[in-house]
Specification:
Structural class: alpha+beta
Number of helices: 3
Strand order of the largest sheet: 1-2-7-3-4-5-6
CATH architecture of the largest domain: Ribbon
CATH topology of the largest domain: Umud Fragment, subunit A
Distance between the termini: 14 Å
Oligomer: single chain
Shape: elongated
Strand content: 25-35%
Number of domains: 2
CATH class of the largest domain: Mainly Beta
């Protein structure tokens, strides 16, 4: 009876970790797309951007003609999303002036910044690229393996 206590505790802890990981994955890959949000890690802070470097910003596609002064606009420079604050919106020429002095054509605008979570962008970027992706997959696999082994070792009393 005593020998099944440790595996049972191990099973409960790893089970809770797996459930928490599943909830996070469902939130990012299930709920966010339903709300039409796109997560963008802020890797550089250009100009007076309202989002801190290292934040995880969320953007939503929007009509560029409806952007106003103070909104944060996102565009892609290669594969990297860049966010800048709108200074003025010239609807006649379909151009947006940003706080860095850069002028964007409407066709380059990817979306409008909605909100951000400080410091989460650095971790999100690391976990989804290169070594971080490998580490996260291995960690999930090891956690599942511990859960499976501890569930197998738990002996239930015969009834």
């Amino acid at each position: 009876m005593k020998s099944s206590v440790v595996p049972r505790i191990l099973r409960d802890i790893t089970g809770a970790i797996l459930v928490a990981c599943c909830v996070v994955l469902i939130a990012f890959f299930g709920v966010m797309p339903l709300l039409r949000f796109t997560a963008c890690p802020v890797l550089k802070n250009k100009g007076g951007s309202v989002y801190q470097k290292g934040s995880l910003a969320f953007m939503r596609e929007t009509d560029p003609s409806k952007l106003k002064k103070g909104d944060v606009v996102f565009y892609y420079s290669g594969d990297t999303p860049v966010g800048m604050e709108v200074v003025s919106n010239d609807t006649a020429n379909s151009l947006i002036a940003t706080d860095t002095g850069k002028t964007l054509a409407y066709r380059k605008v990817s979306g409008k910044g909605i909100f951000s979570v400080p410091q989460l962008g650095t971790y999100a970027n690391w976990l989804t690229h290169g070594k971080g992706l490998l580490v996260s997959v291995i960690a999930m696999g090891v956690t599942f393996l511990i859960f499976a082994v501890s569930a197998f070792l738990v002996r239930y009393p015969d009834e």
